[in-house]
Amino acid sequence: MTRQNLTDYIKDSAAREFLAEHKAKKYRIFDSIELYINEPLPKDFDLEKVLKKIQKNIPEHFVSQIDMIMIGDIPMLKKKEMDAFYAEGIIYLMNNPSSPDDMYDDIIHEIAHSLESGLAEFIYGDGQLEYEFVSKRKMLYHLLVQHGYQRSQIDFINADYNESFDNFLYKEVGYDTIRNIAPNLFLSPYGATSLREYWANGFEAMYVGQDKDYIKRVSPKLYEKLEQLYYMGRFDAESEMAYDMEEEKGWSNKHGY
Ligand SMILES: [Zn+2]
């Protein structure tokens, strides 16, 4: 999706701004993220359940890049058969989620993408994640060849997103087939899409509560990064918190150490 398309969508929705503002007041996440609902969610959809779950499971500093969540019947997402997208501080979500848990998963996934630009060096800089990802892709290549699929090996070595290759995996081979012939190679078949999706897929697995030992066994490097990220962020947030308290109210040690 281009930035122009997104801008047009936001402009198209301007007439509903009054309503959106009221909704945004009603729904805020961590007090810092505004939630706009441009087209209504299914009747009786439990949005508050989604928002509570995010606030409960996600450390607040993980969402520092996100200014807004926008829910609507977003044409560009619909066209690409996508449920969610992140761009420049905004998470876009379709207004027809199949369940609160699905919407939660989508938001977690897009939070992972929002962290990529600021943490690119940490996530990708040492090349370890790419090495793990491409090794898995090569394994997938051999398994698919054994099962009669034909596709250039170069596509499997390229870690960047490629729409034709995405369609090959998703539509031509199919995720059920990938699950069957390559069980436990990726946390879920979508993780095979590209290096960036491999990252987001792992982050999602971690915060939707998939078994950590399983994540570690399937994707050890990815797990190591996720674990480091969690403690790194926690350390920063606590240092800042301690510093703020020191400034305002004298020294304080909330955590007892
Ligand atoms: Zn993604």
Account of the 3D structure:
- By secondary structure, the protein is of the alpha/beta class.
- The protein has 2 domains: 116 residues, Glutaredoxin (3-Layer(aba) Sandwich), CATH 3.40.30; 103 residues, no CATH class.
- The chain has 12 helices and 5 strands.
- Strand 4 and strand 5 form a beta hairpin.
- Helix 11 packs across helix 12.
- The N and C termini lie far apart (47 Å).
- The C terminus is likely disordered.
- The structure holds zinc ion (ZN).
Helix-strand layout with pairing:
Elements: H1 3-12, H2 17-26, E1 28-29, E2 33-37, H3 47-57, E3 68-72, H4 75-79, E4 84-87, E5 90-94, H5 100-116, H6 120-124, H7 128-146, H8 153-157, H9 163-181, H10 195-207, H11 212-218, H12 220-249
Parallel strand pairs: 2-3, 3-5
Antiparallel strand pairs: 1-2, 4-5
The chain binds zinc ion (ZN).
The site of zinc ion has 4 residues, from helix 5 and helix 10.
Indicate the mean pLDDT: 86
The total of helices stands at: 12
The CATH C-level class name of the largest domain: Alpha Beta
- Classify the oligomer: single chain
Biggest sheet, in brief? 5 strands, mixed
Name the overall outline.
Answer: globular
Rg over CA atoms, rounded to whole Å, is: 20 Å
